[in-house]
């Protein structure tokens, strides 16, 4: 089984996690830029973080046979801090880098005017750079936040096929399915979706445009949730091809739109990686 986790914050995880992920079948990840818990106080703090996502983290992942790409953005929460607004001016040169496969995560946290401005500016940057976008939806008042998110996406004129709306649940999946955007689900140990609820949604909505991630970070989370969903899918009667579509081919298709997804086996890959011939989505 091959697994691509399309949303995970490996910066917050240990090498033990990389090892366990590889053993569970994870061969590729995308790490979106986000909030570190401790607020950043200046633009340079973001740039060092972006550089780590472009250099150090892919190097670390490669030691364990896992391909690492990233999405870069000013995250919704810190879009509210005027000390961080200058990040938007630095992003264009970062979005040119080879391992950047999307703009993200962007969107709403508390649904403020500042968040909306940063969201719209970064949707425009995505279009200028021909990159797909990973959009976070708020955890509070999720239905209203998701509806407004879809309005902003529509108004920006970006093709829905290039947009992934993440952290969905039973209440929000329907409107995103209708929008034509990709649907992302974060599977956490005790909040949001769990593997059984996820598989119920796959039965109801099918496997097209569906992405499953662990969104593992510095909070209570589990980088093996993707594998657990795969196992529950198989136990529920889905075939291996369905599992491969949701946990590998869908993320490859979505991020492959960047033209930068490089999943070729190479010197950086671990011993188990031989035989994979997929390159550039
Ligand atoms: Zn995240």
Automatic annotation (TrEMBL):
- Which keywords annotate this record? Hydrolase, Metal-binding
- Supply the Gene3D superfamilies for this chain: Metal-dependent hydrolases
Gene Ontology molecular function: hydrolase activity, acting on ester bonds; metal ion binding
Family to which this protein belongs: Belongs to the metallo-dependent hydrolases superfamily.
State the organism of origin: Nonomuraea turkmeniaca
Protein name, UniProt field: Hydrolase TatD
The organism's superkingdom is given as Bacteria
């Amino acid at each position: 089984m091959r697994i691509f986790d399309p949303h995970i914050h490996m910066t917050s995880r240990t090498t033990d996690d990389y090892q366990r992920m590889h053993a569970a079948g994870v061969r590729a990840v995308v790490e979106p830029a986000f909030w570190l818990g401790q607020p950043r106080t200046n633009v340079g703090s973001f740039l060092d973080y972006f550089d780590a996502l472009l250099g150090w983290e892919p190097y670390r992942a490669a030691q364990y046979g896992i391909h690492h790409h990233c999405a870069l953005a000013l995250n919704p929460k810190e879009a509210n801090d005027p000390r961080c607004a200058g990040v938007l001016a630095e992003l264009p040169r970062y979005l040119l880098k080879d391992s950047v496969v999307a703009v993200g995560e962007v969107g709403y946290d508390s649904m403020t005017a500042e968040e909306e401005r940063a969201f719209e500016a970064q949707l425009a940057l995505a279009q200028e750079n021909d990159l797909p976008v990973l959009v976070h939806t708020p955890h509070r008042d999720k239905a209203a936040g998701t509806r407004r998110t879809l309005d902003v996406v529509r108004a920006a004129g970006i093709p829905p096929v290039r947009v992934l709306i993440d952290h969905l649940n039973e209440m929000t999946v329907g409107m995103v399915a209708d929008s034509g955007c990709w649907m992302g689900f974060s599977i956490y140990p005790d909040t949001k979706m769990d593997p059984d609820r996820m598989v119920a949604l796959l039965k109801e909505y099918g496997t097209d445009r569906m992405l499953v991630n662990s969104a593992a970070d510095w909070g209570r989370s589990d980088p093996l949730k993707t594998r657990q969903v795969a196992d529950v899918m198989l136990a529920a009667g889905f075939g291996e091809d369905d599992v491969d579509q949701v946990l590998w081919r869908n993320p490859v298709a979505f991020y492959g739109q960047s033209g930068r997804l490089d999943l070729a086996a190479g010197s950086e890959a671990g011993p188990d990686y031989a035989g994979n011939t997929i390159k550039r989505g």
